[in-house]
Amino acid sequence: MEKIRSLPREPLVHFLSIGALLFLLYGLVGGDSDASRTGDRIELTAEDIQVLQDQWAKQWQRYPTAQELERLVADHIREEVLYREALAMGLDKGDIIVRRRMVQKMDFLVADIAVPAEPPEATLREYFASHRDRYQEPARVSFNHIYFSTDRRGEQAHTDAQRALEQLRAERVAADGGANLGDRFMLYREYSGQSPDQISRTLGSRFAEQITDLEPGAWQGPIASGYGVHLVYVTHVKPASLQEFGAVRQRVKGDYLSEQREQANRRAYERLRERYEIVVANLPSDANDDLALKDGDAKTGTTR
Question: Tens digits of per-residue pLDDT, 167-182?
């Protein structure tokens, strides 16, 4: 590979150059100036360069040009130099973000080693059979509603809704009629194929619980929501059903691998924890106690 050309003289480059000089000055004046630092070596193998190219291609859907590859290599070297200097200066100490990231990487490392990337088909089918309720297609409800605002009508909203219900039934009004009897609703008047979770997110859990018990084909209510009260006409109900394995295979695989990673991480942590003597101050017996203990108040407890 040709010698890496200097980067364009832009303000950002000047800023980074000054930063690099500061790091160098720290190393020469106040940092580690012993002979051991002279042996530091940064080497990029052909495999390392191929990884850089592959990462670029994954992002840009093409391989880098020669000039772009030189820039990638220069950036990688810069990153490695600053990373090593940051470690030498102890910049990773006391940083909660770095701490959490390292813990996360340990979790992933353990899981990647312990859990196969592609579990056997028989294992997935067995997992599916033992968790069938998880893969049940929920019931779906289609309905129209007429809204009565409690903000506008107050306690009268329920009475007005009851009176409107009697009129709708007496006149045998269809599902798409009767809008003039209620108030304008900010969302939709008609909902199709809604699951209980979807209804709950839109109109509240209490509304969702009640509507799933209604028989289709007639105006019913009033039913309360977070907005007010409603008269509801259920037009269609699709009962809950168990899905076939083939339809949810990818989801089953994801759930299985997630569970296996969690178990692997837990086992690995337990093995690692056994290496340490854990000492924890005694906690207050009541969670509402003042946790600001004075010096000497906390007793030391030891656990394995």
Answer: 999 999 999 999 999 9
